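User: Could you go from structure to sequence for me? I need the amino acid at each position, not a summary. Structure tokens:
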């Protein structure tokens, strides 16, 4: 029988509440063009965007802090988070600017699968933040990227069969998820910039006076015209790396997780006592004194 799945970060009540809050705010921030009625006051959102982005970033930090404090994240899990985040941040610039080739995404899929949704959300957010510092990509879009990548990595941890499903079937499942989620990530990130193009820029930009179906048609046209090729490259790269490197990386991550034993409490044994030739007991860690 297989061992139960180990979680480096367990989501408790406070963590789930914070995650639900930031998710609701994130959905509103991404989808407000389709949630607000035409000609509403939200057309002034562009002026308030920096404040909203700052609020999102604060909520993301609160989610990670609540997750860590409630799950009693140990030094081994912190080390694992740091290593994977640094690796993902280093992988991101490899294909930057080249047809959407972003090898970071396949590592996020596999890490979220092995280490669970709680660790996955924290890893996705931290990795995107670290990569922004590494590449100089800090800007008002960063909180959106952190949230979207957190969702992306957490989704891999929520896939079915984390204990029983292994082998080619699991790799195929992760490849399919990576393909679809790569498109979803690109589509969600399009929502972060599309409303601020300005109605005069193009007939595919957001129009605050148009109806929701009309704006939805504009958004689909915007995605097809601007990001379809990039998202397809990201999706194909994720699938290829998952199929080729996935089995080896999954084994390495699971081996490291078993050895780390995140859920095993650290205990210290009391010193053992032995008896010397004179019948008196002494600690095994203390030197034995013999009579002269």
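Assistant: Here is the amino acid at each position, in order:
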């Amino acid at each position: 029988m297989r061992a139960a799945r180990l979680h480096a970060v367990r989501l408790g009540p406070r963590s789930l509440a914070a995650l639900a809050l930031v998710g609701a705010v994130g959905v509103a921030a991404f989808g407000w063009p389709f949630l607000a009625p035409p000609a509403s006051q939200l057309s002034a959102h562009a002026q308030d965007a920096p404040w909203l982005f700052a609020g999102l970033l604060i909520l993301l930090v609160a989610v990670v802090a609540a997750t860590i404090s409630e799950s009693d994240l140990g030094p081994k899990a912190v080390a694992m988070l740091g290593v994977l985040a640094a690796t993902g941040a280093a992988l991101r610039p490899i294909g930057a600017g080249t047809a959407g080739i972003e090898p970071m995404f396949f590592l996020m899929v596999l890490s979220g699968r092995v280490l669970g949704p709680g660790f996955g959300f924290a890893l996705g957010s931290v990795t995107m933040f670290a990569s922004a510092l590494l590449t100089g990509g800090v800007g008002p879009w960063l909180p959106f990227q952190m949230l979207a990548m957190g969702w992306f990595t957490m989704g891999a941890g929520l896939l079915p069969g984390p204990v029983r499903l292994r082998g080619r079937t699991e790799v195929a499942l992760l490849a399919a998820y990576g393909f679809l989620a790569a498109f979803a990530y690109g589509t969600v990130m399009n929502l972060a910039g599309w409303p601020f193009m300005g109605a005069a820029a193009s007939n595919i930009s957001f129009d605050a006076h148009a109806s929701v179906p009309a704006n939805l048609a504009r958004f689909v046209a915007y995605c097809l015209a601007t990001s379809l090729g990039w998202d397809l490259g990201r999706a194909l790269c994720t699938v290829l790396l998952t199929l080729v490197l996935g089995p080896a990386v999954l084994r390495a991550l699971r081996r490291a997780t078993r050895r780390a034993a995140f859920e095993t409490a650290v205990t210290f044994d009391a010193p053992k006592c032995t008896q010397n030739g004179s019948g008196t007991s002494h600690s095994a860690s203390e030197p034995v004194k013999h009579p002269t």
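One structural detail worth keeping in mind: The CA atoms of residues 34 and 216 lie 7 Å apart.
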